[in-house]
Amino acid sequence: MASGAEGMVAPPEHAKDLFGDTLPLVARYADLLAHAGVERGLIGPREVPRLWERHLMNCAVIEELVPEGADVVDIGSGAGLPGVVLGILRPDLTVTLLEPLLRRTVFLRECIDYLELPNVQVRRGRAEEMRSEVRADIATARAVAPLARLGVWALPLLRKGGSLLALKGEQAESELEEARRDLSAQRPCVADVIRVGRGKVEPATTVVRVTVTSESGHSSASKARRSSGGSRKKRGRKR
Ligand SMILES: C[S@@+](CC[C@H](N)C(=O)[O-])C[C@H]1O[C@@H](n2cnc3c(N)ncnc32)[C@H](O)[C@@H]1O
After folding, report:
1. 36, 147, 163, 193: least surrounded by Cβ within 10 Å?
2. Are the C-beta atoms of 186 and 156 separated by less than 8 Å?
């Protein structure tokens, strides 16, 4: 896959601290995004000057939240963020880029061939349709959906003890508070907001981490409702 134009998007000085030996490969990916990615409408041209700081480095710092050897599914991968960055940085991970749009999956497949990433694969589909097909330790998502909806899509894809890592903005705390009920109705879980990459990226990356605490798909409250004949409303009417 040719990047489609001349000239590299030079990494900032401190990118070497974050990416180490993988920096040349991340630079190839940056080049691809800045040229073919823009030409094919996967990334806005205004993002090019801030590709490193706002996109690649901002995604890379979540790596510290991903356990060794994990199966990762990147929901709504788009042009590959954060999944491709994690795949480059961490060859120990098995990364699935999950994306429903054909045009984007074509780009992603060409991208992983071009970068020669044997630990990264692409699947075309919607997260909510993958419940019987995907089991992961970590689900990542950036700029995909509000947290409550993301929980409905992501939590069924996780193994017990697995986590959704949702990259969010400054309103992460209030978004989490609003979504807590929906998240635990989907699956028993604990959730917190973490800021990662302090001193490496400015501002630090805000992540909502939701960790599932049971094997099965539904919380005990919703199970109890189902086994006693449905919703709270119905029970109320019977009495
Ligand atoms: C705004 S883009 C973000 C892309 C990338 N994560 C990033 O940060 O640049 C949102 C992506 O989510 C995908 N998407 C939308 N609904 C989805 C669903 N139900 N399951 C998986 N992906 C979905 C879209 O096709 C799109 O590529």
Report:
1. 193
2. yes
Protein residue with its CA nearest to atom 10 in ligand 1: 144
Mutate to test the pocket of ligand 1, among 144, 153, 168 (most ligand atoms within 8 A of CB): 144
SS3 20: helix
Q: How large is the average pLDDT for residues 225-231?
A: 42
Residue where the block lists tokens 């929901």: 75
Enumerate residues 6+ apart whose C-beta is below 8 A from 192. 176, 208, 209
Global pTM?
A: 0.90
| 97's tokens | 């880029």
Question: Could you please report the per-residue DSSP string of 160-223?
Answer: EEEEEEEEE-TTHHHHHHHHHHHHHHHS-EEEEEEEE-TTTSSSPEEEEEEEE-SSSSS-HHHH
Q: Which domains does the chain have, with CATH numbers?
A: 67-238 (3.40.50.150)
